[in-house]
Amino acid sequence: MSEGWAGGSTRAWRRTRAAVLARDGYRCRLKLDVCVGVATHAHHTRGKAYGDDPRFLVAACAPCNLKTGDPTRAKGDPPCSPVTQW
Fold first, then answer.
1. What is the pLDDT of residues 5-44, one digit of tens each?
2. H-type helices in 1-86, by residue range?
3. Could you say which of 24, 42, 60, 62 is the most buried, measured as most Cβ atoms within 10 Å of its Cβ?
4. How far from 15 is each of 39, 40, 54, 78, 80, CA to CA, in Å?
5. pTM beyond 0.85, yes or no
């Protein structure tokens, strides 16, 4: 989460989010199987480590943004490894 999230979003983030949504025409760019089409979120394509740089943000609808989650986190469970010794 952004540093300003504890007390709500920052003005800078709200401006960045609005600019990304306008740039992408308020249409979801993720288009997953849960897509509703109308973008209300700005999705960090490379994770928060790149900050709120608009080059690494795309417009997304809420269901797609939530389903995608953090791109830096591993998806799913780790591969199984058999236990042969106790």
1. 555 689 999 999 999 999 999 999 999 999 999 999 999 9
2. 11-23, 62-68
3. 60
4. 15, 13, 11, 38, 44
5. no
